[in-house]
Specification:
It is a single chain. The protein has 158 residues and is an all-alpha fold. The protein has 2 domains: 68 residues, lambda repressor-like DNA-binding domains (434 Repressor (Amino-terminal Domain)); 70 residues, no CATH class. It is 73% helix and 0% strand. It has 7 helices and no strands. Helix 1 packs across helix 3, helix 2 packs across helix 3 and helix 5 crosses helix 6. The longest helix is centred in the middle third of the chain and has 44 residues. The two termini are 44 Å apart.
């Protein structure tokens, strides 16, 4: 049996999937995709469930919201879960990229330190000391510091 998904439920999903974007920004993006009559009040009406979506609009709206078409039909708790999943995945990939970037920068620093030392270039002790300190700081330290920060915030919240 196919579940009946009403306009109100789709509207709730749209509101959650906007993820902080303004209704105006969504309307502007929809107009840029050829839906010339879309305005902030159109987005508001869709979110309230008083204006149904046409299929072509729904497809473009899903693209604007960065989601799949089927996500517009999910219940608010499932949409909230999907949004949280997206945030966790994005944070994970950002952490992965930041770790890579740090290791590349650390390697570049090691090459520069080695070159400066081998050429006997005079460098202030403070500068060289800071460079060597960073060379000795593993990327995992940043993870540990982030974990400490998170745990201190959690303790305050509870």
């Amino acid at each position: 049996m196919v579940e009946d998904v009403g306009n109100e439920r789709i509207g709730q999903a749209v509101a959650l999937l906007r993820r902080g974007s303004s209704q105006q920004a969504v309307a502007d993006a929809m107009r840029a995709r050829g839906h010339e009559k879309w305005s902030q009040s159109t987005v508001w009406a869709v979110e309230k469930g008083t204006r149904p979506l046409r299929l072509a609009e729904a497809q473009d709206l899903a693209s604007v919201l960065g989601c799949q078409l089927w996500e517009l039909t999910r219940t608010p708790p499932e949409v909230e879960l999907l949004v949280s999943l997206d945030k966790a995945a994005s944070a994970y990939f950002a952490l992965k990229q930041a770790t890579y970037d740090y290791l590349v920068a650390q390697n570049s620093l090691a090459v520069d330190v080695e070159r400066v030392e081998s050429e006997g270039v005079p460098i202030e002790d403070g500068t060289m000391g800071r460079a060597k300190q960073w060379l000795g700081t593993p990327a995992l330290d940043a993870f540990d510091a982030g974990t400490e920060k998170y745990e201190s915030v959690i303790e305050v919240d509870f």
